[in-house]
Amino acid sequence: LIKEFKERYPSVNFELHQGEYTSIARWVKEGSVDFGFVNPKVISGLYTISLKQDEMLAVLPSTHALVAQRRVSLQELSKEPFILLDEGEISEPLEIFKKNKLHPNVQYRVYDDYTIMAMIEKGLGISILPELVLKRVNYAIATKKIVPPIVRTIGLAFKDKKILPIASRYFIDFI
Hints:
By secondary structure, the chain is an alpha/beta fold.
């Protein structure tokens, strides 16, 4: 999206900040960023636009016994050493485990998807990560669909479009 926008508006510059959902929402509310990509379900006090649904997949070491299965259940995943992606106040995987009355065996809490994949590759556990993150990786890991499926929504959050800089308003309209 940024590449296409820059082709239309080459003089616009972006300053990107990376964080988990809670931090991103706080930055938007404080005005230190104009907008942020978030999970709209967990944001309050901001305008949000839902952009895309992203399925979350089980991520396993390539030699794990569950790799032979076409799909894996939450119950099977709850028995394995789990590496949790720390996303702030809400975690889609933890919410779906809770909804199904299951408790994952969380061994590690990590803030970075790529660190989690490296840990899985070394056999330290399994995880659940977004499909979009898993599309272009070179780790010796396997991914499996989960039953029941976990889907996250990616959205754009902003305070008040009328007071944003014109480039930010154009970008929101572009998206």
